[in-house]
Amino acid sequence: MKYLIVGLGNIGSEYEDTRHNIGFNIVDALAKASTIFFESNKLGSTATLKFKGRTFILLKPSTYMNLSGKAVNYYLQKEKIKQENLLVVTDDVALPFGTLRLKGKGSDGGHNGLKDIIKVLGNANFARLRFGVGSDYVKGKQINHVLGNFAPEEQNKMGERLEKTSEIIKGFGTIGINRTMSEFNGK
């Protein structure tokens, strides 16, 4: 059984460790903990994780956030992965910092990366793992917030939060989305 795990972010050193790149950070943390490495490929960097008889293709699109759909669609087709085995990992300003929310489908929630994936796939029927980055910004300054770095107190909690996201991703592929949601959402 194959799964495509897409961490959303933007390529380039100026975006490293920003709130908007938490998707990249999450798949990087999973790869590092599993001692696997990303390779540059068409439309993104990929790493393959084997876990409990499952194959997880980790993807960091190189298409920039707002054009992520092209890379997602390419790897779904190339790897012959069913859309129900797609999990997109992204930041969410509507959730307090560190809150993790796994959902089986839904709207783009104003997130341009999700918006493009929905547009390219033609539907919103794919799982997403949202990592709360908080909404502590002045109205009209959302871009500055998401493209900013995490505060020191947030960085201190990041290790535990990244471990939890790895558990959620593995659960998605092994025990299924419903059990994983009930076990992890809101915790």
Radius of gyration: 15 Å
Give the averaged pLDDT, no decimals.
93
CATH H-tier superfamily = Peptidyl-tRNA hydrolase
Domains (count):
1
Low-confidence stretches: none
Overall body shape: globular
Q: Indicate the CATH class.
A: Alpha Beta
Q: What's the count of strands?
A: 7
Order of helices and strands: EHEEEHEEHEHHH
Strand order of the largest sheet: 2-3-4-1-5-7-6
Alpha-beta content class: alpha/beta
State the distance separating the first and last CA atoms.
Answer: 28 Å
Number of helices: 6
CATH third-tier fold name: Rossmann fold
Return the CATH architecture: 3-Layer(aba) Sandwich
Overall helicity: 25-40%
**Largest beta-sheet details:** 7 strands, mixed
Strand content: 15-25%
Describe this structure in words.
The protein has 187 residues and is of the alpha/beta class. It has a single domain (2-184), classed as Peptidyl-tRNA hydrolase (Rossmann fold), CATH 3.40.50.1470. Helix content is 37%, strand content 22%. It has six helices and seven strands. The protein has a seven-stranded mixed sheet with strand order 2-3-4-1-5-7-6. β3 and β4 (54-61) form a beta hairpin. α1 packs across α5 (152-174) and α5 runs antiparallel to α6.
